[in-house]
Amino acid sequence: MKILNLYSGIGGNRKKWGDKHEIVAVENNEKIAKIYQDFFPKDKVIVADAHQYLLEHFKEFDFIWSSPPCPSHSRSRFWGMNRGYKPIYPDMKLYEEILLLKHYFNGKYCVENVISFYKPLVDSQKVGRHYFWSNFIINQIKLPKLSDIINSLTELEKRYGFKIRNYDIDGDKRVFLRNCVEPELGLHIFKEAFREQNKILKI
User: Fold this and answer.
1) Cβ count near 160 (within 10 Å)
2) pLDDT in tens, 85-142
3) Which domain holds residue 14?
4) CA-based R_g, the chain, Å
């Protein structure tokens, strides 16, 4: 299959997909894109605006995963107004992508974001600490809770399977890892997308 992985980060969601498919990853941060490429050398990594890339290339793929920026939708930022955060407009590119994929895309898709401070404007599925918009049912999966106790860089690297301590990353590397999609969840959703097809193929 041809897979498009948008706003790829270092590839938490992609980590357990294997290397049997043709995967294109789009990330606008050159440093982060370099880390992704090191971890997944067989993927094609493009440094670009993922939102625009989706519009121009969505018809070329069989499966699309998108994780648009989440801070403007998050409950933590909304609650943070008590700590001096100022109100900002929610980034509506999230819903632009959901509606584009829902109405124009013929393959399987999954759009991921945080649980928002408002009721989603388009019906979603809630799995763990994420909202998902997709054209397939995502059954619940039990994952270890990301406890505040697991907070050292060493513990987080072990949990996610990414050693990033030697890379040049702007910001706290621990926060960067904590914000990753759990690799097990990424694999679960990938399998769910093609569950019926896999039954027919007896995979």
Assistant:
1) 20
2) 888 999 999 999 999 999 999 999 999 999 999 999 999 999 988 999 999 999 999 8
3) 2-201
4) 17
Query: By C-alpha distance, which of 47, 11, 7 is closest to 31?
Result: 47
* CB-based contact 73:90 (threshold 8 Å): yes
d(CA 107, CA 104): 9
- The pTM of the full predicted model, rounded to 2 decimals, is 0.93
**Domains of the chain: total:** 1
| β 2-6/22-27 pair status | parallel
CATH of the domain at 33: 3.40.50
